[in-house]
Design brief:
177 residues, hpI Integrase, Chain A, 2 strands, two-stranded antiparallel ribbon, single chain, 8 helices, 54% helix, globular, mainly alpha
Length: 177
């Protein structure tokens, strides 16, 4: 019997750098307000597409967004910056409390991502991965990130640390000796 693990290593997640996210968001902002709001919400919160499509006016608060019945049927609060809260509040102004902010299918949101992807292979979950990596690179504590993302196990969140490790190797290769 082999004493070494035969498990295949987990695939590193695809993410895009903040500069590319900013370019995608700017393209969406100049094209369609609703699409921009969808993409910026995914980027600034790290929420899943299913969580986005289920958001209601009732879920938007002063400094956080309540995710109701997220993955595993768990609720959680996701912090949000004031400019995003203001944009979502303005968008929801004429809605009833229980109206969905974005009454779209997950496929429709994926198509919005594809519309603005440029040379990236962009999916809604790419924003989640990019959010996680950006948070870690910005110094967010991994346990805090775990709570924001709604991961039950820290090991799920720790996968993003491997992405940062790959960045270190890539940057190191640039050094001329």
């Amino acid at each position: 019997m082999n004493q070494f693990s035969t498990q295949t290593p987990k695939k590193l997640y695809k993410y895009i750098a903040k500069t590319k996210v900013d370019a995608i968001l700017e393209k969406a902002r100049s094209d369609n307000t609703r699409n921009y709001l969808i993409l910026v919400t995914l980027w600034r919160t790290g929420m899943r597409v299913s969580e986005l499509t289920n958001l209601t006016k009732r879920d938007i608060h002063n400094d956080e967004i309540v995710i109701r019945q997220g993955k595993g049927h768990r609720d959680r609060n996701v912090p949000a910056d004031q400019s995003l809260i203001d944009l979502l509040t303005l968008h929801a102004a004429s809605m009833n409390l229980d109206d969905r902010l974005f009454p779209l299918s997950e496929v429709a949101v994926r198509n919005i991502c594809h519309k603005y992807q440029g040379d990236e292979n962009l999916h809604p979950h790419t924003f989640r991965h990019s959010f996680a990596v950006h948070c870690l690179k910005s110094g967010v504590n991994i346990r805090v990130l775990q709570k924001i993302l709604g991961h039950t196990n820290l090991s799920t969140t720790a996968i993003y640390l491997d992405l940062i490790g790959e960045d270190v190797k890539t940057e190191y290769r640039k050094v001329q000796f």
